[in-house]
Design brief:
This protein has about 290 residues and is an alpha+beta fold. Helix content is about 20%, strand content about 40%. The chain has seven helices and 14 strands. The strands form three sheets. Strands 1, 2, 3, 4, 5, 13 and 14 form a seven-stranded antiparallel β-sheet that branches. Strand 10 and strand 11 form a beta hairpin. Helix 4 packs across helix 6. The longest helix has 15 residues, at about 145-160. It is globular, with a radius of gyration of 20 Å. The termini are close together.
Length: about 290
């Protein structure tokens, strides 16, 4: 069990005044059986004329904001304190054949109704033929769901290069599979497309991974980043096996879960639209995840 202080700052600046800024953020971590949130606060500057916190369709903390005061800079700063344990899973659930993790084919299993929407194609996890074929090597007949999902995770880690220049936020699964490269968001989307193309329910998870500096180096405040992984439904249960193909491991007590959905589009940390005549803008994101 480890307690972390999570700090996330998103700062926009514009070359001309913005008259209206309308947005949404997912920055408050979820309360979960293995994750307790003891404090959480988010500030927006300039102060919004309208601020509406709520739970979204997936149960995530989601906040709408509307800044009507003309501004040339916008800052959203979130700070939370979270205590995390390494998730544990029912060995019998992990040992079930992967074919049972297809809720559309097994709607009578416990949890199948809730899992169904995560077995369907989504905008950023398209069921491209390459994903279907790639997944088939891991999803062999009768193989245990825990073993099959872990094998897929190992293969993506082995076959894909982590390269920040290979993709952009708008890149597709086909792009990442064609280049065999990308970042955590791409690897999560690839894994989702692989599993869902075979009917397996899996969801995109957004949050943070606590990192440590290289040996002999000091921690640099604000040098961390948001992270993405996925969780695969264990059939007949309410458990989801959280796997991280970027780091080739199951999620443990270093993973802070903020939100989950069908893909990145459901749970991006900050998104919105602005009304302005500004020709240029800049964005700076800083994240710090530190043990308390």
């Amino acid at each position: 069990m480890t307690t972390y202080r999570v700090w996330h700052r998103t700062a926009y600046s514009y070359s001309d005044a913005v008259q209206d800024s309308i947005g949404q953020f997912h920055l408050r971590p979820r309360e979960l059986p293995w994750q307790r949130v003891s404090a959480s606060d988010v500030t927006v500057e300039p102060v919004p004329g309208d601020l509406g916190p709520r739970l979204d369709w997936f149960g995530n903390s989601s906040t709408y904001f509307h800044v009507t005061e003309p501004h040339e800079a916008l800052t959203i700063e979130a700070s939370s304190e979270v205590t995390i344990e390494t998730p544990t899973y029912d060995p019998d659930a992990l040992a079930q054949p992967w074919e049972l993790a297809r809720p559309l084919r097994h709607p009578d299993l416990a949890g199948a109704v809730e899992a169904t929407e995560f077995a369907l194609e989504s905008a950023r996890a398209e069921h491209v033929p390459a994903a279907l074929a790639y997944a088939a090597e891991s999803l062999t007949p009768g193989r245990a769901i825990g073993e099959a999902a872990t094998d897929l995770m190992h293969r993506i880690f082995r076959d894909f290069d982590y390269d920040k220049t290979a993709t952009t936020v708008t890149s597709t699964v086909a792009d990442a599979m064609g280049k065999r490269a990308g970042v955590c968001q791409d690897f999560a989307h690839v894994a989702l497309a692989c599993l869902r193309s075979h009917g397996v329910a899996a969801r995109y998870v957004s949050g943070y991974l606590a990192t440590q500096p290289p040996p002999g180096k000091e921690r640099v405040f604000g040098a961390d980043a948001s992270h993405a992984w996925l969780a695969v439904w264990l059939p007949g249960t309410d458990q989801w096996l959280a796997i991280d193909p970027t780091n080739d491991q199951w999620a443990n007590d270093r993973y802070v879960t903020v939100a989950w959905g069908r893909d990145y589009g459901d749970v991006s940390p900050v998104k919105g639209i602005i009304f302005t005549e500004a020709k240029t803008s800049t964005l700076r994101v800083q994240v710090d995840v530190a043990p308390v």
